[in-house]
Amino acid sequence: MKIERAAVVGAGVMGSGIAAHIANAGVPVVLLDIVPKDSNDRSAIATHAVAQMLKTDPAPFMSKAIAKLVTPGNLEDDLGKLADVDWIVEAIVENPKIKRDLYEKLDGARKKGSIVSSNTSTIPLKSLVDGFPESFARDFLITHFFNPPRYMRLLELVAGPNTRKEAVEALRNFADERLGKGVVDCKDTPGFIANRIGTLWIQVAISAAFEMGLTVEEADAVVGRPMGIPKTGIFGLMDLVGIDLMPHVAASMNATLPESDMYRRLYKEIPLIGKMIAEGNIGRKGKGGFYRLEKKADGSRVKESIDLRTGRYAPSAKARLESVEAARKGKLRALVEHTDKGGKYAWRVLAHTLSYAASLVPEIADTIPAVDEAMRLGYAWKHGPFELIDQLGTGWFAERLRASDMAVPPLLAKAAGRPYYKVVDGVLQYLTTAGEYTKLERRPGVLLLSDVKLRSTPLLKNGSAALWDIGDGVVCLEFHSKMNSMDPDILDLVQKSSKLVKEKYKALVIHNEADNFSVGANIGLVLFAANVALWPMIEDMVSKGQQTYKALKYAPFPVVAAPSGMALGGGCEILLHSSSVQAHAETYMGLVEVGVGLVPSWGGCKEVLTRWLLNKKRPGGPMPAISKAFEMIGTAQVAKSAFEAKEMLLLRESDGIVMNRDRLLASAKAKALELAKSYKAPEPPKEIHLPGPTAKAALDLAVEGFRRQGKATPHDVAVSSELATVLSGGTTDIVDTVGEDDLTKLERQSFMALLRTEGTLARIEHMLETGKPLRN
After folding, report:
1. Could you give the CA distance from residue 440 to residue 368 in angstroms, rounded to a whole number?
2. How many CB atoms lie within 10 A of CB 370?
3. CA distances (Å), 267 to each of 310, 361, 529, 707, in order?
4. Dihedral of CA 492/493/496/497: which sign?
5. By the 8 A CB rule, do 46 and 74 touch?
6. pLDDT score for 139
7. What's residue 687's pLDDT?
8. Strand 182-185 vs strand 291-295: parallel, antiparallel, or unpaired?
9. How many distinct structural domains can be found in the chain?
10. pTM for the whole thing?
11. Does residue 620 have a pLDDT over 90?
12. CA of 581: how far to CAs of 486, 514, 644, in Å?
């Protein structure tokens, strides 16, 4: 069956977020809630939820236009609309009786064979459908989304013994391909996978920090990046999700877990946390939490942290632990073997968390990859529990548990010193509960560069990039510089790769599996060269980038880019010069060079301007297009999704959008092969006519108005003036023809002029030191 229409019941933060993300997939969705008292609008709750989401940041909708796919309604007047939907998601209060009462209404209104699922995170499926007719139970599942639904990739799927396989498969495929989720099959057990392990990890990490006398900064420094966990660590995480949720989670887990479970044995109420909740110090959504920003008399804000012993706040101090430094220089074992309090704390947290995870397979899931994926996608861990055990060594970990008088889980004993994962003949295998290795299977349509790299060596490689053969005559160019910043090595490999593809292959794909496609050019290298006045070298690098990107654009073979995450500056410009783009939906594109006092100079100005000039929907004359390009580039606008990138013309209508990141490379390869069948290099754009000085004068006048209003700084004016020169065509006249090379020459001249100013050098230095733009 196909899911072509959906409904969500419950317009709270979670339910409305689920509805928005279903709409992101292009599926019409009805959002229902109760009829509020004393309101003229009987659907006010759902209507308000949609309106609120349009103001929320980060945005639940990938484009404001997508909100039109959500139809607000109420449970009294609009139950009839459920007769047209294929999937109904229940996302109401975690109360079994209220849910079951709702299901009786839904079952009477839904069409035969439609799927009904609950977004519960704590209530077992069997208790939700007990006593319902088989016709309902066979269509019922649990679909546990993580908040916020658009951004958290994990979807835990729980089927009952009576759930029909067709419903499970339909929902799994839809969640994977249309919603972009990493779907993990779970057993019908308390907390499923991620929250079962995650709540134990939180409990141990917090309790141990109190008992061992660590500061919140020290705990977060240990339980953070050294373990491959987000830098929020543990206390920062609780501030983010809300400290007031802790008692509710604890009550649920203590009520549903068996008495012998490690969580129940370790759980202790912490008086300070109760006091913080009572006083409204519940985290970022309250007055503060374990951390807070305190406003001083002079208007400045100082970050403070709470003393876990006294409950008093004091200025936050950076943690200084030798164990954390050892972990940076060594590996995970260096952290837990260190004898300082950070090392002892790390061992206590990992010993309990990892042994607990190992003890729960196959109770909560059939395989260890399912557990690892749930923790990576649900809690944003870089490595799952079993991958962390492999880093420590299964044999070492078992012996250390014994030395700590802790039980060795059967699955750890069964490993007998062998790793949980290994590579055999270029294929990744994992240890089963039977103690044997089996191949880690990918879902059909999934191609990962990491798998390609296991079974092959690069065709070309240098310090910043590599070229891989991904089969069928297609090669993939991968960036691997720091933050994938564009540098001369990448430009060199682009040129060499192009030559090789022209000689031996059909097409080139540009893709990597880092968090971000590319954050832009290596401005550290630019600053160094400027400080020693290597102006010819800098201009040569700019010129080389322009020539390299132009050669890609007019290559005799298709170039398909497949970005995800940030694609900024030079990373955005290489996408603008590709034959086609298959973008992950969560691609954030933009030309942000003005933030460091520069203008795009690898063809970015030229491409954005040309696209707006040739856009059939634009008003007549060049000024509207020039103004739009000036606004986008001059304010460093970044598309917050691939859908927004299309609206900004950074992506073309013909470019594809892929919801699931794991399917991105396969999609790009398929596009490249399709184009290669009859590919011809594009013709240069039609003649472009630009107004020159008259257009620049108009743009300068607008910026001067902003300066007088205090909305533009003195150096903003300088940068905008150079940008205006490029986009207006320099000294040209409206009757003259302006070519691509003319525009890139203007880009290069303006870039070099700005780089010689103190204001731009100060901006670059400030960005490198703080990661934030300087308003000078």
Report:
1. 10
2. 20
3. 21, 22, 57, 58
4. negative
5. yes
6. 97
7. 77
8. unpaired
9. 4
10. 0.94
11. no
12. 18, 17, 14
Q: Provide mean pLDDT across the span 665-678.
A: 98
In the sheet with 87-90, reading across from the earlier edge strand, the strands are 70-74, 29-33, 6-9, 87-90, 115-118, 140-145, 154-159, 182-185
pLDDT, tens digit (0-9, with 9 covering 90-100), for 537-593: 999 999 999 999 999 999 999 999 999 999 999 999 999 999 999 999 999 999 999
Q: Would residue 443 count as lying in a domain?
A: no
Strands (E), 555-676: 559-562, 565-568, 580-584, 587-590, 656-658
Higher pLDDT, 468 or 1: 468
**Residue 492 belongs to domain spanning:** 449-592+638-676
Domain membership of residue 73 (yes or no) is yes
Strands 437-439 and 474-479: unpaired
Residues 245 and 148 grouped into a single domain: no
CA atoms within 13 A on the CB side of 596: 26
Helix, strand or coil for residue 74?
strand
Q: SS3 for 215?
A: coil
Residue 187, beta-bridge partner list: none
Q: Is residue 437 part of a domain?
A: no
**For residue 741, how many other CB atoms are within 10 A of its CB?**
12
Would you say 744 and 699 are in contact if contact means Cβ atoms under 8 Å apart?
A: no
Q: 234 near 205, Cβ under 8 Å?
A: yes
Apex CA 591: angle with CA 498 and CA 736, to 5°? 80
Report the distance separating Cα 174 and Cα 54, nearest Å: 25
- Say yes or no: 722 and 773 in one domain: yes
**What dihedral do alpha carbons 487, 489, 492, 496 form, nearest 10°?**
-130
Domain containing residue 341: CATH number: 1.10.1040.50
Is the per-residue pLDDT at 444 higher than 90? yes
- Residue listed under structure tokens 């966990």: 229
Domain co-membership, 567 together with 608: no
